[in-house]
Design brief:
There is one protein chain. The chain has a 3-stranded antiparallel sheet with strand order 1-3-2. The chain is 65% helix and 6% strand. The chain is mainly alpha-helical and 187 residues long. Helix 2 crosses helix 4 and helix 5 crosses helix 7. It folds into 2 domains: 84 residues, Winged helix-like DNA-binding domain superfamily/Winged helix DNA-binding domain (Arc Repressor Mutant, subunit A); 84 residues. Strand 2 and strand 3 form a beta hairpin.
């Protein structure tokens, strides 16, 4: 006779880890990144202690080799740290839980290049609008000019806001980010 027992639900912590990992994985996909990066970072975020590679792989359900490659990529991004504990030869991983460091990475890797592209598009649109005055009826030209002006304004103001968060070298200024996010200087 078959048992009709319902399997025990996963502990709430594991459910939360899986939900966070799925959400962060989806966020990674938005930027063309491997969703495993988000799942791994989420698993480590919700781990109160450093975790050995094999355990991290079990947490997200991937092979150790796949996990190792992805964790090294996250380490390169500055999102996780790898180290060895005393009297333990295994690599252990922990999340870099400083959200300002992660925001600085995201700004540099994604937002700055996106803003550069958007500025180029806005500049080209603005330049082309003058040439369209003779090709379009005045009312259509007015509509397109108003749309272009609004787009250019939003892009330029966004770029100005972003510039306030950068160092003179054009990289994210973690002190400024911290002050903006938390209303105080970084400790």
């Amino acid at each position: 006779m078959r048992s009709t027992a319902v399997p025990a639900p996963a502990p709430l912590h594991h459910t939360l880890r899986d939900q966070v990992g799925q959400g962060l994985g989806a966020a990674c996909q938005v930027y063309g990144m491997n969703p495993l990066y988000g799942r791994l970072w989420g698993a480590l975020l919700l781990s109160p202690r450093p975790v050995p590679l094999a355990e991290v792989a079990d947490m997200v359900g991937t092979a150790k080799s796949t996990t190792s490659v992805a964790l090294r990529k996250l380490e390169g991004f500055g999102a996780v740290r790898r180290f060895r504990l005393p009297k333990d030869r295994r690599d252990h991983y922990e999340v870099v839980a400083d959200p300002v460091t992660l925001l600085a990475f995201w700004l540099k890797r994604f937002l700055l290049p996106e803003m550069a592209e958007a500025r180029a598009v806005a500049s080209g649109m603005a330049a082309a609008m003058g040439g369209l005055a003779d090709e379009l009826p005045p009312d259509e030209h007015a509509v397109l000019t108003a749309r272009t002006d609004a787009f250019v304004t939003v892009i330029e103001r966004s770029a100005d806001m972003l510039s306030a968060l950068l160092t003179e070298a054009g990289t994210p200024d973690k002190r400024r980010l911290h002050a903006l996010l938390f209303g105080e200087e970084e400790p």
